TrEMBL record:
Organism expressing this protein natively: Nezara viridula (Southern green stink bug)
UniProt superkingdom: Eukaryota
Gene3D superfamilies named among the record's database cross-references: 3.90.1200.10
Domain CHK kinase-like: 123-317
Coiled-coil regions listed in the entry: none
Name this polypeptide is given: CHK kinase-like domain-containing protein
PANTHER family linked to this entry: CHK KINASE-LIKE DOMAIN-CONTAINING PROTEIN-RELATED (PTHR11012:SF56), PROTEIN KINASE-LIKE DOMAIN-CONTAINING (PTHR11012)
Pfam families with a match to the protein in the record: EcKL
Xref: SUPFAM superfamilies: Protein kinase-like (PK-like)
Amino acid sequence: MDKEIFEVVLNKSAQDSKIKRIIEMKSESALPTGENFTSTILKITLKVVLGNGRIATKTFIAKKGYTGEAAEQPRKENSLFRTEVSVYTNVLREMGYLMEEFGDTEGPLWCEFIHYSRADSIIILEDLKASGFNTVKRTEPQDLNHARLALRSFGRYHAMAKVLEERGLISKDGYKPYLFLYDEVYIRNFLYGSLQALIKGMRKAWGEEWTEYADKLSQVSFEELLKRIKDSGNFDDNTFKCLNHGDGWNNNMMFKHDWEGKPIEMRFVDFQVPHYNSPCMDVTYYLYSSINPTVRHQNLKSLIELYHESLTSSLERFGYKGSKPTLEDINNGMERLVFFGTWFFTSTFACVLTERTDAMDLDLIFKTNGEEGYNLSVYCEDGVIEMIGEDLKALVKLFDES
């Protein structure tokens, strides 16, 4: 078969599967209440006629910007949606080209970007569920198998980002500082405000043995917390740094599983808060926000080693010419971020774990600077002490030692 005939065959195949006309369209919420905090996620179902005349059903995801009080702060500085569109159309597109160049067949780490309407503040994306991907239930923290795949995926993502930076396709100065390290409004409202709510919940329902811990945490001022958090993320110029995903937690990951339920592929979603820093930021944020704390306690060393192997082998695979971080470098970075991770986990995990859909009222949180908007009952639920108690004691110890 010569190339002219092959060209005709391929064009016909493409036309046969192309959407020619939409017959029906309906939209519905893609997520239950309480599963997404900064966007409205819709599932768009289309009944269509394809190029070959066949009637088919196609589904897409429409992501619409949140318009409440909680969205105002980032909107004042930069549109979260414009940032996300830029990541899809620039960074992820180039990552896809990089994978093609080096014959990486593991699959992309993102969904397909289809369209952005600036006027309507809507992003249209591939529906990953149609390809067999699903999130892990938010109220059931990820197990070891999911953690291993997620950390391998972070290593690949960070390596590709670093190679693109080396090629001049990513600028380290093109991204805002990380919200949870440098934005005082977010730190006050979330990291400080949520811990104040936890302290109230401890005094209400945890018993006398926890009174001492509640008293010590209540003595921590916002200014002290702010300084500790900023210092933890202030890595020197010699540190290996790259573009971070920025919000790589359970609800922003989708997994495909084999017939035995083991995760075999993963996709990141929600690229609204990328930032440039040590990749240990993404790793810390994930480990302390998304996996079962018992799994983290028992497997932290091996999980960090797995991440480091994925990062360095991926840098090698994609032809990175610079200096690669050693395992000691990564361990030192993780140790530096223990305070940030422990504070983040103890102050927010109960809100993440609860079955309740009213754990947080984001608008009220931002209107009151974090003094209201947290449902104290989530800190009094069965299992909360067992889940976060060990890390809470470790947090108090970090303050005692400082």
